[in-house]
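User: Here's a structure from my thesis project, written as C-alpha cells. My advisor, Dr. K., wants to see whether a designed sequence matches the one we expressed. Can you design one independently, without my sequence as a hint?
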C-alpha cells in the first residue's frame, strides 16, 4: 500500500469511543426522561459513522424524529464529557507511530468525519498529534455529506494518489462517490466485503 495522501475517518478507524459514548448517551437519554433506556456499546457500533440525524433515528426509533435529534445533541455533549482525558486509552494501537512513519515517507494526512464540532479537537487536545495532519473536516464543515467533504478536500489540496481509510460500508460508498480509493479498517465497527484494500490494525498502513 503506497498512497501519497491518506484521509482518515474517526470512529472505528482512529479510535474506539464506544464505551465512553455508551455511558454518555445513556446518562443523557435518562436525564431527558427515558429512564429505562440504556444505550449499549453494540448500539454505538451499529450507529456511529452516520450523520447525527441518522444516529438519532437509529438509537431512538420510538421517538418523533426531531425529538430524537434534539436528545442526541445532548448525548453527544455528555459523550464528550465521558471521553475527555481518556483519549490516549481509546486510540488504536500503533496510531502515533504509524502517523510518524507516514509523515517520514512524505505522505500528507487528513481527517474527515461525520462528527460534530469539537470531536476532532478532543483528539488534538489530549494527544500531541495535530502536527501530523494537514487538514481536517467534519459534518457541515464545509458541507453535509462525507462524500462531498472528501471531494472538497481533494480539490482544495489538489490531491493525487489518495485514499480514504474507514471502517463501515458508508465510508466505502462515500469514497466511491468522491472518486478516491478506499482502505477498509477491518478492526473497526463494520464489514465492507467489496473493499480492495484491507488493514487489520492501524500499522498495516505501512505495509
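Assistant: Designed independently from the structure alone:
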Amino acid at each position: 500500500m503506497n498512497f501519497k495522501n491518506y484521509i482518515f475517518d474517526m470512529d472505528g478507524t482512529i479510535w474506539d469511543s464506544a464505551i465512553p459514548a455508551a455511558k454518555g448517551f445513556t446518562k443523557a437519554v435518562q436525564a431527558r426522561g427515558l429512564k429505562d433506556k440504556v444505550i449499549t456499546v453494540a448500539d454505538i457500533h451499529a450507529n456511529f459513522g452516520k450523520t447525527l440525524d441518522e444516529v438519532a433515528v437509529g438509537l431512538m426509533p420510538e421517538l418523533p424524529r426531531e425529538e430524537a435529534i434534539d436528545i442526541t445533541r445532548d448525548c453527544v455533549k455528555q459523550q464528550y464529557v465521558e471521553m475527555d482525558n481518556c483519549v490516549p486509552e481509546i486510540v488504536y494501537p500503533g496510531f502515533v507511530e504509524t502517523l510518524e512513519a507516514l509523515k517520514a515517507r512524505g505522505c500528507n494526512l487528513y481527517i474527515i468525519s461525520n462528527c460534530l464540532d469539537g470531536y476532532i479537537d478532543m483528539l488534538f487536545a489530549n494527544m500531541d498529534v495535530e502536527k501530523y495532519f494537514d487538514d481536517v473536516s467534519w459534518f457541515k464543515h464545509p458541507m453535509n455529506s462525507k462524500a462531498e467533504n472528501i471531494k472538497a478536500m481533494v480539490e482544495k489540496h489538489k490531491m493525487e494518489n489518495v485514499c480514504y481509510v474507514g471502517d463501515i460500508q458508508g465510508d466505502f460508498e462515500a469514497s466511491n462517490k468522491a472518486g478516491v480509493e478506499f482502505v477498509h479498517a477491518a478492526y473497526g465497527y463494520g464489514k465492507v466485503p467489496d473493499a480492495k484494500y484491507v488493514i487489520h490494525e492501524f500499522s498495516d498502513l505501512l505495509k
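When you compare it with your expressed construct, this may help: The two ends are 6 Å apart (CA to CA).
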